[in-house]
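Researcher: Go.
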Amino acid sequence: MLLAAVFTANAEDAQYQDVYYTIDINHLTAEVALNPKASGELFIPEQIVVGQNTYTVTSIGDKAFKGCKNLMAVVLPRTLQRVYRSAFEGTGIMSNKENWTEGCLWIDSILIATDKNIKPRFVVPEGTRLIAAGAFAGNKTIERVELPACISRIDHETFYNCKNLLKVVIPSSVTSIGEDAFTNSGIYLTENKWKKGALIIDDCLVATNADLPEKYIFKSKNPIRLIAERAFSDQKKLKTVEIPESITAIPTAAFFGCESLTDVTIPSTVREVGNYAFYDCQLLKNALLPNTLERLGAGAFYGCINLKEQVLSDQIEVLERATFFMCRGIKNIALPAHLRRIDAGVFAGCSHLEAVELPKTLDFLGEQVFAGCATLHKIVIPENVNQLPKEAFQGCTRLYKIVLPDGLYAIGDGAFEGCVALEEINIPKSTFRIGKRAFYNCMQLRGIALVDHIHMIEESAFMECKMLEEIKLPESLKVLQKGAFSQCINLQKVILNTRLKEIEDGAFFGCRSLREVQWNDSLQTIGVEAFMECKYLRTPVLAPAVQIGKNAFKGCK
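Model: Structure:
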């Protein structure tokens, strides 16, 4: 259940000028998505406007235009950071030989693809903006490639399966290398290129194999200046790693799934830990982050169930989604002093997290942010946070105290679902919405004042709040939604507000202790099974025009 929102909270589909995009609502970026009917000539702008936001187009996605035989030309923006070769496979652009020059397909100074007509010894010209992911993949002609100083990234599978490729000159301008960039190339398949289980090209560690020792110490003629994405992933024997001071970034999925890894030494030179860097390293206990760290990527320590301690640099302003998801060993964590946002699921499943102090600078909490933190007992929400997201504290079974900010306007769906120790909560005067199942099964909730500005109490909002005894509905409420107070077995008295027009199906179903309802003259509809099994309810005095649903009072003796 915790996974439901964690990886989808940031992405949405959008259409702009007949082109489909996937937008990242947090980082305000956009990727060209699947456009199977694209044809003619397309212009991809640098920015698109969706709703009230402007998004920068940074990527042409995998297979974006694949198979579009009638797509003959496209103009690509200067803002692109990634392009996939697969985006143009089967298009009119790729099939038109006039678009190729000496075995290369170029679009707006981006090297999209190569074929057998390329020169075996190829120098990528200066002025090349990007090299597409997979641009050389499977090319049997190429033997040597020299990259220009203007290239900063070798994307994933760039030289995949280039069986005759024995040399690539990587300039110092390259700061990242993608997954499988050299896998199954001639370099990769040459045994003497490997040293103690590692493949190093121009001081870049690009891959490891089964010969990697349990304790890996970086050694080469010159300092290793970067590690490729997934370079150590799924190494089953690796137990300890000392990252050298020549490294400034631990890339995406670098140690993904290293099931035996227990200790990692991270130097002060590291400024960034990429997405899923230590994903599912279940035995990892020690990986202290330096106080110089500027970015901690999404899912960086996802599933590191034995990680017991972590220090977060004050330079970090955003904790990206699922950073510490299921890190059950963490009991306390000090958050950065200038932290602005905590994205979806960052601490979800941290079942031993006892206390956390949210900084005053915080203005955003993501969905399921503390869901499943079973030992978290109290928390104060900073004043700049204006809404509690969906399932924020779902399953926090020991949470007994929470302080909400004065400016809070919404409590999201399932925000406190299953918080069985929560006894009371003060709803701020600014709150206008209490979402579906917001307090479902808060069985110790005894007192709650529903302020008069609340316009919505949604479906099953207080279902199975078994210790509630009296409820006064807020004056702004016109409709009480389905099952709002169903199975509140100790609820004895309900005061309806003067503006309430409708009580929906099952709103008070099973409230077996309910004896008194103070009815109003504005009520027009009582839904199906609304008061069913409220066996001690006194006979209501209702206006003749009130519509009463089937079994609305069944079992009311």
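Model: The first strand starts at residue 11 and ends at 16.
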